[in-house]
Amino acid sequence: MKSVVLGLVCAVAAWGQLPVSVWYGGGKARAPMLEANPRAKKEIWRKDVRQIKALGFGAIRCWVDWASGEPVEEYHFETLDVLLELAEEEGLRVFVQVYMDSAPAWVGRKWPEARFVSANGAVIEPESSPGYCRDHAGVRGADRGFYQALARRGARSKAMLGWDLWSEPHVINWANPTYLSNPEFCFCSNTVARFRAWLKRKYGTLDALNEAWYRRFATWDEVQPNRLSTILSYTDYIDWKAFLSEKLGEDLRERYVAVKTGAPGLVATSHAAGVGLFASPHYWEGQSDDWTMAAQVDLYGTSFYPKHSAFVDRDPMWRAALLDFTRSFGFAEGRKGFVVGELQSGFGTIAVNVSRAVTAADLRVWTWSALARGAKGVHYYAWYPMSTGYESGGFGMIQLDGTVTERAREAGRIAQVVAANEKLLAEARPAQAEVAIVYNPLSHFVGGRQRQAAYGGPQGEVAGIERDSLLGVYKALFPRHVPVDFVHAARVTAESLRPYKLVYLPYPLMLPASTAAVLRAYVEAGGRLVAEARPGWNDERGRASETIPGMGLAEVFGARETAVETAPQGRTRIVFEAGGRCRRDGSRRRWR
User: Fold this and answer.
1) In which element (H, E) is residue 435 found?
2) Is 0.85 topped by the overall pTM?
3) Cβ neighbours of 256 (radius 10 Å)
4) Phi-psi region for residue 280, left (φ > 0), alpha (ψ -120 to 50) or beta?
5) 329 three-state secondary structure
6) Structural domain boundaries of the chain?
7) Are 155 and 109 within 8 A, CB to CB?
8) Positive or negative CA dihedral for 214, 216, 220, 224?
9) Are 362 and 306 in contact (CB under 8 A)?
């Protein structure tokens, strides 16, 4: 175990336990679906539960979806009851994933105005998902009530360990309206009203909003979210996306408070689909911010699918960057760690796009990579392969006929080792890094909607300069074994930067003015700052600085930009060498 915990120091974890579980919801139904007649299947499920325990697991992660849990306006938690009984009888613990995106039909009949609305006015008719907009007061109340009732039911069982309140949070989940060319959510009257209230808090007066947006609104009722790209101003677009990010955080917090009301002693978590390092605030379904979400729950984390489907095969550097990014927001601002809500267990697939095989060695490396960074929970997805949907046949730890694989045995052995050292690992905390990389969501907004990158698809990522700049410096430090923290541009302070010997500022074209002030103070106090080209070109409103570097950074660097042009083929590579002359060859500049 010494090699596993090397570089960790102790701190009090959020709850003192560290589950290594496998997703199992009773039988072979894939999440968030549930099999019918759970009581009649208890003994069949017991065989699975016993097999899971025999391999070495101490916990299962089951799920509850709103449509099954409240098919009419009364609660039905029979599946959870049976699984909790089995867990108690067989000596396992239970972690519960809650899915609200699969909503009961009565919600739409009762509140038809709660349907999601896209930017073009299209009203979304839910099928198995995505449910209804939580900004409707009735839906929000029913949402909270479901969490409270579920928490009260779960708290009765000695086997209950905790909750994941929201899997991969977005404004809209698990449904892609392919009939719309450019969907974007949510523009219903309830969300618009909430946006106006947010703007009132930010700007105070309509005159201040008009000045910021370059508008002439006569009343607040005229204010609408941005839908267009114009040559004049895009402050309204930045405000809209900032509102969505804060809204998602507030929604998660409401769910957290609801379960804590019913079960105050149980841990409450959530996890992202893909952390901000590989995502974009432009995403049409409404993208969350990891630091904002982490502040709302006991532990926040990520899904981790290194071999999600064909053409997806993440190398060690990519995997390390994802986990270090997750560790960074998990431990930021005094928080106690992070969770891997979903760790890929078997080959991945989207229809015929099938990944390379997932091996026992893969699971060993992926799991210990997360634990070595301070993960406080690892949940393998899933026990059985997916039985339905476009992921059918993929992601299983065992075969669909029940055949146990070597990777399942390896995962069980890992679970046993963790259980034998649970207190040590639960209290472990990564050592302080000496290098920080600034993560800045505003970097995606240069040009507003004009800079939108293509959507990366399910579990995909946007390949753009924003991501590449973050990964570029990480790639330079990773083979040299230099620990790195990612710090959020909007949340850094002079105090939080003080422990770092070096701060690297990638793709810094658009910065909050407050961040520039913090970076100036960091350098004035003796810190070392390295920035890529054009720092502080635009501020958080999308307005250009008079000089570049902007916002006082020209004085910090002792340099000023005199000209700028796009490099041949759109890319410039700079190689630093000893000497005193510069040679440029094509798109490469070599400094000698």
Assistant:
1) strand 435-439
2) yes
3) 20
4) beta
5) helix
6) 10-26+37-47+301-428, 435-561
7) no
8) negative
9) yes
Beta-bridge mates of residue 439: 488
Helix, strand or coil for residue 354?
A: strand
Angle at CA 21, nearest 5°, toward 353 and 390? 20
Domains 10-26+37-47+301-428 and 435-561 share a fold: no
Rounded Cα distance, 570 and 588, in Å:
11
246: nearest Cα among 197, 207, 304, 210? 197
Q: Which residue shows structure tokens 């923290």?
A: 485
Tens digit of pLDDT for each residue in 47-59?
Answer: 999 999 999 999 9
Half-sphere exposure for 354 (CA within 13 Å, toward CB): 9
- Assigned architecture for domain 10-26+37-47+301-428: Alpha-Beta Barrel (3.20)
Using a pLDDT cut of 70, give the percent of the chain over it. 91
Q: How many angstroms separate the Cα of 406 from the Cα of each of 144, 347, 416?
A: 42, 14, 15
Report residue 317 as tokens.
């550097």
Structural tokens at position 16: 């003192």
Helix (H, G, I), strand (E, B) or coil at 373: coil
Nearest residue to 449 (alpha-carbon basis) of 258, 256, 228: 228
DSSP 452: P
Closest CA to 549 of 572, 515, 500: 515
CATH fold of the domain at 435-561: Rossmann fold (3.40.50)
| CB contact at 8 A, 175 and 130 | yes
CA angle 366, 456, 397 (to 5 degrees): 35
Residue pair 140/134 in contact (Cβ under 8 Å)? The answer is yes
At 480-525, the pLDDT tens digits run 999 999 999 999 999 999 999 999 999 999 999 999 999 999 999 9
How many other CB atoms are found less than 10 A from the CB of residue 153? 20
Peptide linkage before 225 cis (omega within 30 of 0): no
Q: Which two tokens stand for residue 283?
A: 């995403």
Q: Which two tokens stand for residue 446?
A: 């240069």
Is the separation of the CB atoms in 211 and 138 below 8 Å?
no
HEC readout, 203-264? HCCHHHHHHHHCCCCCCHHHCCCCCCCCCCCCHHHHHHHHHHHHHHHHHHHHHHHHHHHHCC
DSSP tag of 287? B
Rg of the chain (C-alpha set): 25
Q: Do residues 146 and 153 lie in contact, with contact meaning Cβ atoms separated by under 8 Å?
A: no
